[in-house]
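Issue 218. Parser rejects a valid record. Input:
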Amino acid sequence: MSCHKILQAKGYRLTPQRVLVIEALHHAGGHISAEEIYKQLHKRCPYSNISTVYRTLELLKKLKLVTETDFGEGRVSYHVAEKGHHHHLVCRTCGKVTNLDESVLYPLRDTLLRDYDFDADLRHLAISGKCDECRKKGEPS
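Output the parser choked on:
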């Protein structure tokens, strides 16, 4: 079911601004920031403001229609949940982002459940560290 239909089914209004935020998310090749969404929204609705984007993103997160990933240093991006789960390794030195296969995290999820009785939500995750190039250069963290 599309985001539009889910919002309507749950009794939320489909305002023009919400529709444009959803369109921006769906047309993004991958992750998109709230600021990038706002730029697209503002072109078509000049009277809109960034708080509308953040409120809409919060609603979509609450309904589990989008995921939010914190890439560190204030870089937060959003991704349509129906496009699947994926994870990222983020170099805190150069900012390089590498995709990580979800299966790598299965042992972690199982360990957390078994040893800590904690059912972790590992659907969309960014892990910070140092990439190979920065480690070889001896770049400080």
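Fixed in the parser; the record now loads. The first strand starts at residue 66 and ends at 70.
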